[in-house]
């Protein structure tokens, strides 16, 4: 029987890759709902091609979308709006699978709604998990949601674990003979830049990733290595593992997507061309496998694979994320909020590249960390941290 999908963030890079995979399997999957924030023309095209039952946009985009529907003769699609609309489609009774691919903290409540409705949730929106951590995992357990990693590294780790195991630690000790998780990082576009050169890099240079084609925010995160920091936190929560068992390995070719080392000396790696269609297809069909447009890996072309340690002097964001995970509680949410504000400021040319980590560090040092006992408290702290980071950026500018 065909499964019904809701794509939160259908107009984004992950959303588009998801549609590409789904288009190969019309007998297996149908699109129930899609959501978009700003690229309304693209969203209308998606509606025309995939004929969802529901579409969600910000209220101020409804008129534009309706005009486009009229223009392209698109009919019988219900339009819902804003966060309430996102939550409504994420938990809708007719939805089997939710692709959580909104960027940033705004994706938290819709993703959590999907988890609480017991869906198969394909998690791309790492910020949502970084912010909510244990609360998201507890909700998944309580409501029997299947939370599957789409982030290529976490999907790779999942593939390198014995079938059915997501938890690899109990009472602080690794389970299943796992010794260490090796989280690979491409190193981003500035891997060879000196500190002096890093000071002067532009947003246009930062969003040009050498291996992956991604949205702007995650591309900047990859350039600062904050993306790897967020992924470190993501891995700790997804696999219930302490941060000291997660080692970051810079691997510039992005062919190995991560590895798991076992006590017997085995290291298992998942390899493939860097294309998000592979982890998306894996999470969609797991435990089965489905085809994707991704060509098989040609190791005679990719004959050299390099590995090195990350340089925390040039890329301090990774160190800050590890410290936030060690501190626990609200620290990861504070880190994430400050980073979102700092990245937006960098993209708007208000601060320099190296100031992104500076803003995050300053915010982490000044916004009060305490226990993350509820989503309300996390969201409140997220707002406090955003406000603090914004004010600090204004000071830096003046
Ligand atoms: P993107 O910028 O290309 O797309 C973001 C999507 O979120 C768009 O559909 C946009 O409409 C929607 N969105 C943005 N702001 C919104 C708001 N305020 N309210 C509602 N919707 C909003 O981003 P992306 O690269 O596709 O990344 C999406 C998520 O997947 C991120 O959390 C990212 O970290 C993660 N991820 C992406 C990749 C990748 O290769 N792109 C890989 C791993 C993980
Ligand atoms: Mg990743």
TrEMBL record:
Domain DXP reductoisomerase C-terminal: 271-387
GO terms under biological process: isopentenyl diphosphate biosynthetic process, methylerythritol 4-phosphate pathway involved in terpenoid biosynthetic process
Protein name, entry field: 1-deoxy-D-xylulose 5-phosphate reductoisomerase
Residues holding 1-deoxy-D-xylulose 5-phosphate: 126, 152-153, 186, 209, 222, 227-228, 231
Species assigned in the record: Acinetobacter defluvii
Entry-linked InterPro entries: DXP_reductoisomerase, DXP_reductoisomerase_C, DXP_reductoisomerase_N, DXPR_C, DXPR_C_sf, NAD(P)-bd_dom_sf
Function per UniProt: Catalyzes the NADPH-dependent rearrangement and reduction of 1-deoxy-D-xylulose-5-phosphate (DXP) to 2-C-methyl-D-erythritol 4-phosphate (MEP).
Residue ranges constituting the 1-deoxy-D-xylulose 5-phosphate reductoisomerase N-terminal domain according to the UniProt record: 5-133
Span of domain 1-deoxy-D-xylulose 5-phosphate reductoisomerase C-terminal: 147-239
Pathway: Isoprenoid biosynthesis; isopentenyl diphosphate biosynthesis via DXP pathway; isopentenyl diphosphate from 1-deoxy-D-xylulose 5-phosphate: step 1/6
């Amino acid at each position: 029987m065909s499964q019904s999908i809701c794509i939160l963030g259908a107009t984004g890079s992950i959303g588009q890759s998801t549609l590409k995979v789904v288009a190969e399997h019309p007998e297996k999957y149908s699109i129930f709902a899609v959501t978009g924030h700003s690229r309304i023309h693209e969203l209308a095209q998606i509606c025309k091609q995939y004929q969802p039952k529901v579409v969600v946009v910000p209220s101020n985009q409804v008129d534009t979308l309706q005009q486009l529907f009229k223009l392209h003769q698109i009919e019988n699609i219900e339009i819902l709006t804003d966060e309430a609309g996102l939550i409504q489609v994420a938990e809708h009774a007719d939805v089997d699978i939710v692709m959580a691919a909104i960027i940033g903290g705004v994706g938290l409540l819709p993703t959590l709604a999907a988890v609480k409705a017991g869906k198969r949730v394909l998690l791309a929106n790492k910020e949502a998990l970084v912010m909510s951590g244990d609360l998201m995992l507890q909700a998944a357990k309580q409501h029997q949601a299947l939370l599957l990693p789409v982030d290529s590294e976490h999907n790779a780790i999942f593939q390198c674990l014995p079938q059915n195991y997501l938890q690899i630690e109990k009472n602080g000790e690794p389970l299943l003979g796992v010794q260490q998780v090796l989280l690979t990082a491409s190193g981003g576009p500035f891997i060879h830049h000196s500190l002096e050169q890093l000071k002067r890099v532009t947003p246009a240079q930062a969003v040009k990733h050498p291996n992956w084609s991604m949205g702007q925010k995650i591309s900047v995160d990859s350039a600062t290595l904050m993306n790897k920091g967020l992924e470190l936190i993501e891995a700790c929560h997804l696999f219930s593992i302490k941060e000291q068992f997660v080692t970051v390995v810079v691997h510039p070719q992005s062919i190995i997507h991560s590895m798991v080392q076992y006590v017997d000396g085995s290291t298992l790696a998942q390899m493939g061309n860097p294309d998000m269609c592979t982890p998306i297809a894996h999470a969609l069909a797991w435990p089965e496998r489905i085809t994707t447009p991704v060509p098989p890996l040609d190791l005679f072309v990719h004959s050299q694979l390099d590995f090195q340690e990350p340089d925390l002097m040039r890329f301090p964001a990774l160190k800050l994320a590890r410290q936030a995970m060690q501190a626990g509680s609200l620290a990861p949410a504070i880190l994430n909020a400050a980073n979102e504000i700092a990245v937006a400021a960098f993209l708007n040319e208000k601060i320099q590249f190296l100031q992104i980590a500076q803003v995050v560090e300053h915010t982490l040092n000044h916004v009060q960390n305490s226990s993350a006992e509820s989503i309300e408290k996390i969201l409140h702290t997220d707002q406090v941290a955003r406000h603090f980071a914004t004010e600090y950026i204004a000071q830096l500018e003046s």
